Amino acid sequence: MGAYLLRRLLLVIPTLFGIITINFAVVQFAPGGPVEQMLAELRGQTQTLSRLTGGGSEVTQPSDSSSGYRGRRGLDPQTVAQVQKMFGFDKPPLTRYFEMIGSYLRFDFGRSFFRDDTVLHLVLQKMPVSVSIGLWSTLLIYLVSIPLGIAKAVRDGTRFDVATSAAVLVGYAIPGFLFAILLVVLFAGGSFVDWFPLRGLTTEGSATWPWSQRIADYAWHMVLPTIALVAGGFASLTILTKNCFLDEIGKQYVLTARAKGAGEQRVLYGHVFRNAMLLIVAGFPAAFIGILFSSALLVEIVFSLDGLGLLGFDSAIRRDYPVMFGTLYMFTLIGLLLQIVGDMMYTLVDPRIDFERRG
Known about the structure:
With 359 residues, the chain is mostly helical. The protein is built from 15 helices and no strands.
């Protein structure tokens, strides 16, 4: 297992930097970068100042079409050069790429273009919000889906199975963010009742409250975002659990255990459970990553939760490249490491699995 783990850790390095390289190359061709946005903003300010001072028409400088910045019209070349240097775009792309890689090896992600803060501090500041949503949602999804999936497998074809399948189908069909909007309309002061808060994870001024009240306030704020993610995420895991148990129940060792007089609970939880839960338990890290870095994005926007999803969305819109690439680097690294954790969980659930022998 040690050699297998070492190989997987070594594979993280080329995979991580391969993903960063592809995204860096793609971004070079994306229009509307930070330099272009800043030049357009400066040009707009110049036009406004010209109108306010009665300048009549805007004084334009000869434009260099080779610069590639459409927003530079009306700005002198020296200003354009200063803006390029401010954002680090005065260097060739290859030079910027290798400088970025060297900094990332030291976990130095630089500073945000549009926020007066370092990327690492921004990520650490937003992380608790997203981790809270992702962790509680994933745990609740497993707590709902596994018992429900087992019950559906045991009662396959009964009225209970048919009725719960309808609920699963609805949960599968409705996106989490759409259900979040419905919850806001119904329970957060939209059109009906105002039972739950709409913004943030804590009430303003709650830092001075007793710890019991702070916990209750945190749970109160978490209700609607968590329900929105659970409703949109439990369906797939429920069906997976049911199918895994149905597949194991029909195998020969189950028939043999029953023939020897083992009770139904003994057969189900003593023999079937371990084999059926392999795929489900090992998929926990991937499910957590999926909710943390993708599913929670729109839910964070709906409930105005200042987490990683909202940070990444805003950075992509504003072309804040240090934040974009810094968060991508950390997300990818965490995702790759959690995949290894998933493999380790296979061996914990079933010690018969030996990745070293398979390699």
